[in-house]
Design brief:
Blueprint (H helix, E strand, L loop, with lengths): L4 E6 L19 H13 L4 E4 L15 H8 L7 E6 L6 H14 L4 E5 L5 H5 L8 H20 L3 E4 L4 E5 L13 E3 L4 H10 L2 E4 L4 H17 L5 E7 L1 E2 L3 H13 L3 H11 L1 H4 L13 H4 L11 E2 L1 H13 L4 E5 L3 H31 L1
Parallel strand pairs: 1-2, 1-12, 2-3, 3-4, 4-7, 7-8, 8-9, 9-12, 10-11
Antiparallel strand pairs: 5-6
Helix pairs in contact: 1-13, 3-5, 5-6, 6-7, 12-13
Amino acid sequence: MVDIKFAYWIPNVSGGLVVSKIPQRTDWTYEYNAQLAQTAEEVGFEYALAQARFIASYGAEFQLEALTTVSALAPVTKKLKLIAAVHPGLWHPGVVAKIGSSIDFLSNGRFALNVVSGWFKDEFTIYGEPWLDHDERYRRSEEFIRVLKGLWTEEEFHFKGDFYRINGGWVKPKPITQPHPEIFQGGNSKAARRMAGRVSDWYFMNGNTIEGVREQIEEVSALAREEGRKIKFGLNSFIIVRDTEAEAHEVLRDIIAQADVEAVEGFRQAVKHAGASTREREGMWANSNFEDLVQYNDGFRSGLIGTADQVAEKIRQFYEVGVDLILGGFLHYSDDLPAFGKTVIPIVRELEANRRKADELVVV
């Protein structure tokens, strides 16, 4: 088996990764993020994800656009795979195919894309774009990905869908990454899972328990097999590592105690229909309580909170049920991200090596 990968949320929006008034040693500026990216790849992170926001939400007053951010981070890094989030409906897939191919070419094959179907209605309506029903947003995203793949891989691409038309389009130079840059997507609904099985390379999951993650992986893997495909899985986690388990959980209590109640409630109102509006009445945030929403992708629920050994062991357990990548957020990026790379990642690698040795002994 391939070793588990590590990614981090690029803090390209103000306010950090928790909707809380607790002081945080982090920043959203380019200078800060350039230094952070260099540190991240030095301590063992393989991927970095820039989130996409166009207007303030959950207290994020300032936002650096994701594609621009990863293009700016490419020349100051050497190994890090840079993932940019984009919203179909706010971007045309032909334009993103050209931008993405250019970034991949300039970064020597280090570009990836996270296609986000969207939950924040105001971001669409302020630009006069229609706000589609939940499942229709995922149908549009699927067409978006099919167009990206076609333009990235074919010399002359034609497409006629319900949302997009491509009349003999092409992209040159082609991406260096073959057959095309990796495509990530998220979403917890049945529509999201079906879409992942059909077209995506990676399926991002909100924070969840071991059993909850296992269920999602089994279902989406089965859907992918029906299409003759395989898919990889990333798990969102808010990571708190301290010298003792008690200290780590005290940090979590402080974050929640100082939550920005108004911003959390605003976020709750924005996403409360995410599951209810689906055909099956289930989706992202459907079972999230107030404390979960303080970390807006349910990162606390993954339980990567404790000592370095405890967090490494929990990561191993997620790996055993099929998680291929841990996507981490941190309270104090300046301290917590490098500390995680220097302490937890080596323990995880040691656990993986020991497991391989044990497997080899069983085979012999």
